């Protein structure tokens, strides 16, 4: 029997006993059963949410979609065609082709001089 059904069953038993509702004990038991009902309801809600999240994570396609959406949300300057990662500090920068043609830039985070091998790029384009 699920928690929710057991709580409902207990509530039914309690009501069937027709205890004196003016007594403190009866009020306390009634309050406890209310709390129990709400707690099982909340647990069920969390359990459903957890199952939905697990489903999302277990489906790689969905995760890829989520990551794609996140990447689209990242503000990238117009004309920024290449992503480079500073080998020194790991900073990710987006640069355009004109910047690559310069041959090198300084990492905006650590100042490391990053040089580009332009001949490699041109060979791939042919
Ligand atoms: Zn750097």
Main attributes of the structure:
126 residues, mainly alpha, 2 domains, two-stranded antiparallel sheet, rod-shaped, binds zinc ion
How is the topology of this model organized?
Layout (H helix, E strand, L loop, with lengths): L2 H15 L6 H35 L1 H14 L8 E4 L6 E4 L1 H5 L2 E3 L6 E3 L2 H8 L1
Antiparallel strand pairs: 1-2, 3-4
The structure holds zinc ion.
Give the uncertain stretches in residue-range form: none
Give the CA-CA distance, first to last residue. Answer: 68 Å
Helical residues, percent: 55-70%
Order of adjacent strands in the largest pleated sheet: 1-2
Strand pairing plus helix content: what structural class?
Answer: mainly alpha
* Main β-sheet description: 2 strands, antiparallel
Rounded to an integer in angstroms, the radius of gyration calculated over CA atoms is 31 Å
User: What's the helix-strand series?
Assistant: HHHEEHEEH
- Tell the overall outline: rod-shaped
Number of helices, counting only DSSP H or I runs of 4 residues or more: 5
Task: Kindly describe this structure.
The protein is mainly alpha-helical and 126 residues long. The chain has two domains: 3-71; 75-125, no CATH class. Helices cover 61% and strands 11% of the residues. It is built from five helices and four strands, in the order αααββαββα. The protein has helices spanning 3-17, 24-58, 60-73, 97-101, 118-125; strands at 82-85, 92-95, 104-106, 113-115. The strands form two sheets. Strands 1-2 form a two-stranded antiparallel sheet. A two-stranded antiparallel ribbon has the order 3-4. Strand 3 and strand 4 form a beta hairpin. Helix 1 packs antiparallel against helix 2. The protein is rod-shaped. It starts with a helix and ends with a helix. The mean pLDDT is 83.
